[in-house]
Specification:
It is a single chain. The chain contains five helices and no strands. By secondary structure, the chain is mainly alpha-helical.
Length: about 120
């Protein structure tokens, strides 16, 4: 189980920290905005849902994964874009809610399947 947690933390760091850095560093001009749209409206929400589904397998031990992922997103965007920008807090809250809701749904479905 510890290996899974470490793996998911590494993937969270890569997606929530490395991808914004890559968008700022490698993409030039107006394409940065397009890359950010893809990150903020596609990649990050989909990852939050996938992470929530995985965390729903063992909520007792994995409940913190959606929280850590949202915090990493906030740290990454504040470092690479604009520190203190409150719009990123809204995105982090949405990613957190997506992760927690899918975690709870996954947990409920898993419990119903065990009956």
């Amino acid at each position: 189980m510890k290996k899974n947690i470490i793996l998911w933390l590494a993937v969270s760091a890569a997606i929530m920290l490395a991808l914004p850095w890559l968008a700022v560093t490698l993409v030039k001009g107006d394409a940065v905005m397009a890359a950010c749209f893809v990150l903020f409206f596609a990649v990050n929400p989909i990852y939050s849902v996938i992470l929530g589904v995985f965390a729903g397998k063992d909520v007792k031990h994995l409940w913190s994964l959606p929280v850590i992922s949202a915090v990493l997103f906030l740290i990454g965007t504040w470092i690479f874009f604009d520190i203190g920008e409150m719009a990123f807090v809204l995105y982090a809250v949405v990613y957190l809610v997506l992760g927690i809701v899918t975690m709870l749904i996954s947990m409920i479905i898993r419990k119903r399947g065990q009956r």
